[in-house]
Amino acid sequence: MNAKCNAWQQVSRMTGCCTCPTNNTLATFQHLPNSTKVSTLCRDRMHEFLAEELAAEGAALQKQQQQQQATEGEAGTTTSSQPQVVEDEKEEEEERAWRAALDRTFRRVDALASLACACGRIVRPPCRCLLSCNSDIVGSTAVVAVLVRGCVVVANCGDSRAVLCRGPAGAPPVPLSRDHKPDRPDELARIEAAGGRVIYINGHRVRGILAMSRALGDRMLRPEVIAEPEITVTDRTPQDQCLILASDGMWDVISNEIACSVARQCLEDGNPSPADDEPAAGGGEGAAAGPEQEARCSRAASLLVRLALGRTTWDNVSVVVIDLKQRE
């Protein structure tokens, strides 16, 4: 539960693309048109809110465990005879705590988005500077991944995506998030239940305006567009190769399979080549990235950005690549 993060470190030149390697936390935030202030707010504040919420959940969980132990002691009972049951219950509680902390973190950032100005100030009433604009019509996507004991926790709001590259070359990638598109059946049903409409104007759009069904900010489109993240918890395996977080500007023109192939080749060889990609030696949870490993991740992310731009993507592109293997 100790996921303190002192600062997001920018790992590419694209706005909102950041990582915090010392605490195994990474994220990408993709601003919508004229919405850089929201993605900047996410970059600057989300890690602070997440640290606070995790600390609160950790304290509550510890208190609950102490009370349970005290109750068992008074009753003269113990669960030590069933260690597997105890461990399963502990994992369930930790997962619940992660979900609760991430959900509250996204809600806090969303609430602050309505007060953020492009000049960097958080003010109420709206800022009077020349950069000020209507905060109800700006927003950002957010996909956050945290590597914790034996698993990857991903929270997603919008149409950015997290994909896990697992297994030997050619193995199917493992999506860790689902895009929040207005034409996704469950999202379409939710939007219509809220009294909204999805109109096709150069793609499916909420009220004919926004091409996603969830976002941080964009209060003009509430209650159809919500800021509630979808959260997944995926077990780690020794076959995990790398993790890719990117905005829809990349995923619109590059498939999960191609993205994983390019990233794997960069991480294995230091640069893309047609050579066959074999699983890297080592594995496990992974240690802090060294300079060479960081350089390979940076090259992989930069190459994916250039590839997306070369395929004439119509959107901004943000990419984060993290190596999950110990490599020679």
UniProtKB/TrEMBL annotation:
The keyword Membrane does not apply. Its EC number is 3.1.3.16. Residues 1-324 form the PPM-type phosphatase domain. It is an enzyme of class 3 (hydrolase). It holds the Pfam family PP2C. One of its GO terms (molecular function) is protein serine/threonine phosphatase activity. InterPro entries: PP2C, PPM-type-like_dom_sf, PPM-type_phosphatase-like_dom. This is protein-serine/threonine phosphatase. It comes from Setaria viridis.
